[in-house]
Amino acid sequence: MTAVLQAASVRGDRPLEDFLSEYRKVSRAFYDSSLTDAELARWRARQLTTVLHHVTDRSPFYRCHLAGVDIDRVTPEDLTALPFTTKEDLRREMYDVLSGPVGEASIYYETNGTTGTATPCPRGPKDIATSNAAVEESWRRLFRTHFGDRMPVVGLMGPSELYAFGDVFTAVTASLGACHVKIWPESPRVGFQKALRLIEELGVEVVVCAPALCLSLAKAALHHGYDLARLPVKLFLVLGEICTSQFAANVSTVWPQAVVRPALYGSQEALCIATGADTGRLHLSAPNYLPEVIDPDTGRVLGDTGEGELVLTMLVDGIKPLIRYRTGDLVRITPAPRDAPLPGPVVEVVGRVADRIALGHARLYPAQLESAVLEGVRGCLGYQVVVDHAPGGGDEITVRMDLLSRVADPDATAGAVAGRLRALTGARVRVAVDTDLDPVTHTGSFVSWKAARVRDLRSAPDRAVEAARQVAHRYAITT
Length: 479
Fold this sequence. Notes:
By secondary structure, the chain is an alpha/beta fold. It has three domains: 2-122 and 267-352, Rossmann fold (3-Layer(aba) Sandwich), CATH 3.40.50; 128-262, 3-Layer(aba) Sandwich (Rossmann fold), CATH 3.40.50; 356-475, GMP Synthetase, Chain A, domain 3, CATH 3.30.300.30.
C-alpha cells in the first residue's frame, strides 16, 4: 500500500480511472483490516492537501474563504488554521461553493429546504463511487449475517426526486446482486395499502426507511388486516433520524420477525459519513473524512473523539467537498471495539444541536429523551411528548403513547415511563394511552426528530414545527 499512496499528485488532476483504481485499493485494505494506521494517515494527509488545492482552485467561495491560509502547511492533526463552513455559508453562497460547474456532475440533488433555502448538492463520479463503497461493504456484511449466501428482496421506502436515497440504494443493491423495489408509502403512486401488498407478494425481507416509518408501516398493516408475524420483513435498515437502541428493541416487539439496524448516517451535503454494523453501531467511513468534535456553543475543538457537534472535512476532490463543515449534529465518537464487524471509529448520533430541549431541571438531547420514554417499552406504535407550563410553575409533561394492548400492559407501561421522566427532569409527568396520535409524529426525518416527537406549548412554534405541521396530513394513518 505504501507505494500506492506515494504515487499521485496532490493537485487533484489525476484521471478518474487512476483515482478510482487507487481508492479501491485503499478501501479494500481498510475494510479487510490490512490498511495500517500509518498508511491511513498518509492517505488522509495527501488527500487533505489535494482537496484544499482543489477547492481553492475551483470553488469561488473557498477561494475567498481560505484566502491567506498556507494550505500546504495544514495537517490532519491540526485543522484550526481553516475556518468553519456553516449551513448559513451554503445557503448564502449556493453554487459558488461547488468546485466546478454543475454540468461536470453526474447527477443533481439538493437539500429539502424545509427549514431554510434548499442548497445544491450535485455528485460527480468520484463522490458517488467513494460514498457508495462504504454502504456496499456494510450491506454485504449485514446481508451475509442475516441471509447467508442468498440475497433478499429489498424494499426502498424513501424519496427519490432531487434526493439521493433512491439512486444510492439502487446502485448498492445492483452491485450486490439483490432485487429492489421502490415502494415509498408517502408517494401518491404507492400509498400504504399497495406497499403492504407488494411486501407480501414479493417476499420483501429488507425494508430501508426512516425509523418512524417502521411504526407507521405496522400501524397501517394492522389497519388493513395484516398479521405482522406473517409478513416477510426480517430486517429494517434505518436512516435519516436518530434511532436509539430502545426504539429498535420496541420495533422488534411490534414486528415479531424483524430487527432494526442502522443503514447509514449521512446527509445530502456530506454524503455517507458512517455505515451500520449488525451490532447496531455506526462506523465512520474513515478514508473519506477527517472528523472533529467541537463544543457546539463555543466552537472549541475537543478532539477527534468524545461528545459534541460533529465537524467534517471531506477527503475526496469531487464536485462539492466541504472543509470543516459544521453538521449541526451532536455525536459521540469512540474507538471501534477490537471485535467490531466494521472498521472505523464508532459514531453515535444523539440528535441535532437545535433539538436540545429544556425539561424541568434538565436539558436533554433527543436520544436521552427517547431512551427515557421507550426503555423497556413493548408494542408502542408511536409516541409524542407534549410540554406545557404547570399550574403554579415549572413544566408539565404529557407523553401520549399508542400501545398494542395484546403486547403491552398499558398501566404498567404508563407508570414506568412517568417515573423515569420525573426522575430525569423533576417535572410533573403523566402518560396518556391514545390510539389516535397527532399525525405529525409520523413525519420523522422529513423535518426533524424534535418537530415530529415534541410539541412544546411553552412558546410559539418555530419554522421546523410549522413545516412539519404543513405536511402532517400526508402521513396520517387511519386507525
